[in-house]
Design the sequence.
């Protein structure tokens, strides 16, 4: 067993003002200073953070101390990773630090809570009973998605709107965005561009189309009179779209593609893992090439699957 | 706010001309290569608050380092720590995963710097330790996502006790003693978090499992003795399938 601590501080419970980051930093400090650490004392002092402290010690224990590190330098020309981190950090100086996206969502609990609500609403039977055609409803919701994405992005691309509507359909089972097909840049609904969503939204002045960019139209405010009847829960949908709006177009492509692959695997009873998703992409002539892209590396697929599971968009 | 800076860093910052002046920027540019990392973080935050992207970039290069014309890594205060932690976690020799790990760590460093001194003061107090903590958190997250998903673990624990108390696989009794602690610890990192906790405290720290004393695994994790054994059984089964552990079973 680990040696008992010599830490003179008492074992009394310390108030919550110490956040978990500070506690972990204290643990690292104690470890680096060669102070004996008995984890039972730490969880007694900070019982609210018990699991995080226990897990953190599993990883901190046995690591080399900083003064013992003699790692040989790497030798690799054109280090893309460091360049990209610095480039993003510099952009964040001008554009605000939200520009500096971390690969992992720093607050997965939000997705988790949202996922529970989404699963709950999907479990309820739903069938649209109004007179509006599916095409019209598609136009309304498509324009609304553009309206929600617009404040959070420099431009709203067709790709972003297409991927978000695909995920929205999976999340809320609207019975509207059901025409997506497997295309090179992920699930894509060509009818939305040529036959229903975009033409209808343009005709009503809700959106304007400029090449691959979708802008809000002059009468975008008119969407509000239709939307509540078509979207099951405007609040839930808005919260989901707000989460998705934080992703880049490329990340949305990854999310939608992996959602598609995972659904296809689940439908055959196959397990959904990083490896099976990779294998699914590999056997697809259209999607095989994605595996060479950085955003489809194992870690990226793993984090995307985690996000989908948290949002309850995949059932385990 | 009162920061407990390393004396060298406090000295470096104290010797600079008034922030924002031409002399200030010139002095920083002249000394980035010799500044302590805590000093660089402080200056980067100041540069960011003044919208001085060029100075920010100059310090960022000194903090992170860069590959020189011959491909050799030049300067920097991050790379050694990141690579040492990658080695400890068993991903040092897996290029793709290592690249993801480096990316997440470096972006994490930049994120922490942009969050400012109020939220993240320790980056200006003990940079190396703050970086080490970040590497651990990124490593946990990355390896957790590669090896399985926390959701799955949560569900697995929903049926805590299909196992009789004490009913663990032979791995625990027979083989555990022969496994190099380093190999076992690395393999434990690849387990789902709750299994990893139970396995680490029972098999690495050798704590009693089911006793009521303060340091037992059951008490630490605040679960029943049966639930600990259920986790240990799952962990033993998963470890037996782990390539690093399987070699010990084959050499039985």
Sequence:
């Amino acid at each position: 067993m680990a040696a008992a601590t010599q830490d003179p501080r008492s074992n009394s419970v310390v108030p919550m003002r110490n956040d978990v980051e500070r506690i972990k930093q204290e643990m690292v400090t104690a470890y680096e200073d060669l102070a004996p650490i008995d984890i039972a004392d730490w969880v007694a002092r900070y019982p609210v953070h018990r699991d995080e402290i226990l897990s953190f010690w599993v990883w901190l224990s046995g690591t080399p101390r900083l003064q013992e590190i003699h790692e040989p330098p790497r030798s690799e020309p054109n280090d893309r990773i460091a360049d990209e981190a610095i480039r993003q950090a510099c952009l964040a100086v001008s554009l605000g630090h939200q520009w500096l996206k971390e690969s992992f969502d720093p607050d997965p609990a939000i997705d988790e809570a949202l996922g529970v609500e989404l699963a709950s609403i999907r479990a309820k039977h739903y069938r649209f009973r109004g007179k509006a055609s599916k095409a019209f409803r598609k136009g309304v919701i498509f324009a609304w998605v553009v309206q929600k994405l617009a404040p959070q992005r420099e431009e709203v691309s067709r790709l972003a709107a297409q991927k978000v509507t695909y995920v929205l359909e999976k999340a809320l089972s609207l019975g509207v965005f059901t025409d997506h097909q497997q295309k090179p840049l992920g699930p894509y609904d060509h009818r939305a561009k040529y036959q229903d969503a975009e033409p209808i939204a343009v005709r009503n002045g809700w959106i304007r189309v400029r090449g691959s960019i979708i802008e809000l139209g002059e009468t975008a405010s008119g969407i509000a009179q239709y939307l509540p009847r078509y979207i099951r829960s405007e609040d839930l949908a808005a919260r989901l779209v707000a989460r998705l709006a934080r992703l880049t177009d490329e990340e949305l492509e990854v999310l939608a593609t992996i959602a598609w692959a995972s659904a296809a695997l689940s439908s055959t009873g196959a397990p959904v893992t990083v490896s099976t998703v990779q294998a699914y992409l590999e056997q697809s002539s259209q999607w095989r090439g994605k595996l060479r892209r950085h955003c489809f590396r194992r870690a990226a697929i793993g984090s995307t699957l985690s996000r989908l599971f948290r949002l309850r968009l995949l059932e385990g | 706010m009162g920061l407990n800076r390393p004396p060298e860093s406090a000295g470096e910052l104290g010797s600079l001309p008034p922030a924002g002046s031409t002399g200030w920027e010139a002095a920083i540019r002249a000394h980035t290569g010799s500044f302590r990392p805590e000093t660089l973080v402080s200056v980067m935050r100041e540069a960011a608050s003044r919208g001085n992207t060029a100075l920010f970039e100059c310090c960022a290069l000194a903090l992170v380092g860069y590959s020189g014309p011959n491909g050799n890594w030049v300067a920097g205060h991050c790379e050694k720590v990141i690579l040492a932690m990658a080695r400890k976690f068993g991903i040092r020799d897996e290029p793709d995963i290592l690249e993801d790990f480096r990316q997440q760590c470096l972006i994490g460093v930049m994120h922490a710097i942009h969050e400012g001194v109020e939220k993240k003061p320790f980056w200006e107090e003990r940079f190396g330790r703050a970086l080490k903590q970040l590497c651990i958190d990124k490593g946990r997250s990355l390896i957790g996502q590669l090896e399985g998903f926390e959701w799955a673990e949560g569900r697995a624990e929903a049926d805590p006790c299909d196992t009789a108390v004490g009913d663990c696989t032979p791995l625990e009794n027979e083989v555990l003693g022969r496994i190099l602690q380093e190999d076992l610890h690395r393999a434990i990192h690849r387990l789902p978090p709750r299994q990893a906790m139970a396995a680490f405290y029972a098999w690495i720290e050798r704590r009693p499992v089911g006793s009521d004393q303060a340091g037992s695994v059951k008490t630490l994790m605040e679960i029943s003795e049966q639930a600990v054994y259920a986790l240990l059984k799952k962990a033993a089964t998963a470890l037996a399938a782990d390539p690093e552990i399987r070699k010990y079973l084959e050499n039985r």
In short: Confidence is low (pLDDT under 50) at residues 1-18 of chain A. Residues 36 and 107 of chain A are 32 Å apart (CA to CA).
